[in-house]
Amino acid sequence: SAAEKGGYDYFMLKEIAEQPKAVADTLLGRIDAFGSLRLDELRISAAELREVDKIVVVACGTAFHAGMIAKYAIEHWTRIPCEVELASEFRYRDPILDPRTLVIAISQSGETMDTLMALRHAREQGSKVLAICNTNGSTIPRESDAVLYTHAGPEVAVASTKAFLTQLVACYLVALYLGQARGTKWGDEIHVVIRDLSQISREVERVLETMEPVRELARSLAAKNTVLFLGRHVGYPVALEGALKLKELAYMHAEGFAAGELKHGPIALIEEDLPVVVVVPSPRGRSVLHDKIVSNIQEIRARGARTIVIAEEGDEAVVPYADHLIRIPATPTLLQPLVATVPLQVFACELATARGNEVDQPRNLAKSVTVE
Ligand code: AGP
């Protein structure tokens, strides 16, 4: 009913708007007054955490994209090797697992069969499983050794939005906590990031306040057949997520690529007026990456692409090559997906609406996939 949707036309719109609160709720009570992480709820001792020598993240769909981003964060802040794998592929290739492997299973519903089978396989090999889940008491957390709940609240729309942002928050928390527990050389950086994370919900809100031009752009592209998405570093999984949203909702051919792969094939797809969304990393910090992506934008634009550039406020280098410029607030590199994903959700939702599609219940899809 309209009341359930809180005055929005679709649950998806309501859930996109709820993201600042979902992010804040997922952080609540987990950062103490001294800016340190409190995750005693994990029930894994610091001694056990110091034993971990490999982390494997398993998940499907959007949760898998959160896992890809987790890998960057985990390896950077903990120096523990981390793999991320589609849950549906995992157990069929006889993965190497032992009691020192920590498996992280990410699932909004907690009922996804592929993810459940992957975690059962991991536990049979003696690995510990930590679930990141949004649904209290669902099967995946019940069958795991530990659980970190995301507090997005119920997500009704089939296309995942607020659950994704809170999965990212949970992954950052786990990575930072492991880094904190193991005392890596990034101690100071970890402190700064915890502080930035505690303020990020306000930045998500700021992004939501500036979405009208994105909706307008989406409507203008309603007759297109294809949209490509490019990103690098954590912007790569963001590109994949943007493409997945567009497939699910707008039923359009949408593909995400690592920008560095362009020259290895995908650049052949570029033709006159093809919309290409580019997620640009911060020009601060890893500026080498930034410069490389700016030249990618130049290259595709020279071949006729219509460039839709998502870039940090104050990034002037992209301006000459952006047919459409979507600004996002400056964040630490690894946290950028929390703000960069939001315009892509809005874009897909509006495009779907413009094409007359059912936003909350896309064809052929179910909210939770309980078959393998
Ligand atoms: C995302 O928009 C999807 N509908 C889908 O990819 C989903 O993320 C996936 O099926 C995993 O679901 P889960 O998080 O409930 O395990």
TrEMBL record:
Residues 45-184, 217-362 form the SIS domain. Transmembrane segments: none annotated. Its EC number is 2.6.1.16. The active site is at K367 (for fru-6p isomerization activity). It comes from the Bacteria. It is found in: Cytoplasm. The keyword Signal does not apply. GO terms for molecular function: glutamine-fructose-6-phosphate transaminase (isomerizing) activity. The keyword Transferase applies. Keywords: Aminotransferase, Cytoplasm, Glutamine amidotransferase, Repeat, Transferase. It catalyses: D-fructose 6-phosphate + L-glutamine = D-glucosamine 6-phosphate + L-glutamate. Catalyzes the first step in hexosamine metabolism, converting fructose-6P into glucosamine-6P using glutamine as a nitrogen source. Homodimer. This is Glutamine--fructose-6-phosphate aminotransferase [isomerizing]. The chain holds residues 244 to 615 of 615 of the full protein.
